[in-house]
Amino acid sequence: MGRTEDLIVLASTSPQRSAILAQLRIPFRTVAPAFEEEPGGDPLEHAAGKARSVEGGEYPVLGIDTVVRCGGEVIGKPDGPGEAERMLELLAGKTHEVVSGLCLRTPGWEELHVETTRVTFRELNPRELGHYLASGEWEGRAGAYAIQGLGASLVDRVEGDYLNVVGLPGALLVRLLATRFPGTYGFG
Which residues are catalytic? Predict the structure, then answer.
């Protein structure tokens, strides 16, 4: 891990985002953003709003927002098992996009980027859908699945950054840290 003076302030309380930063050995602290998300809103605008709502002081602030898109429809978090089933049926046998907006900012500059990962689900039969729905893993998940868990069984192929599907575009963040802070976080 880096020194405590090299922290990133994560404008999120997402356990998945925290786990990814820990996996990449990037020291961080979390702060709940004071930003009201608009359902189905632009992930880049949301990421910027989250990052701008948090005071990082001397530390860089990281804001992320992720949406799932399939056939022109933005798929958010399901309200219950019926909506989760509808979402999974929509995704079954198709390729969808996981789109994340990322904002990395300091008092002197701001980087705004979008990362898109394509995920293809295999065809799913009613028994498989029922099994996944019974797991409860879909709760609170955009697109009604968690690829890092049992949701991996629904997926046929991932094109792009796997960590983006989990909740944070790791490859993009590493590139930005390597460029903006060479050597500080172990990159660049």
Answer: 65
